[in-house]
Automatic annotation (TrEMBL):
It comes from the Bacteria. This is Uncharacterized protein.
């Protein structure tokens, strides 16, 4: 796994496929994203997001989550990661 700066996300291309295979994993990811968004909006706290790019390479970025939609996670600095590319939020 490679750790990157959030600014590097501008250069990423993501798969359109879901990276998690189990519905319980997807539910957990959604709950973790909601908690991380509350942390970002109330305390400006950062989280580590582990995700896959379109070639299935594993990356991690530490950033603040500002908003979560049905398909997209909005990060500080007007950056985005598709929800389906995220494996884990710490």
């Amino acid at each position: 796994m490679k750790t990157i700066a959030k600014e590097e996300l501008l250069n990423f291309h993501y798969s359109k496929m879901e990276v998690l295979s189990e519905p319980i994993e997807i539910t957990k990811r959604n709950m973790d994203l909601q908690r991380a968004m509350l942390l970002g909006n109330t305390a400006h706290g950062k989280v580590k997001i582990t995700f896959l790019d379109f070639q299935h390479n594993l990356f991690q970025v530490e950033t603040t989550i500002w908003a979560v939609t049905e398909e997209i996670v909005c990060l500080k600095g007007n950056l985005f990661i598709p929800k389906n590319a995220i494996i884990e939020i710490d």
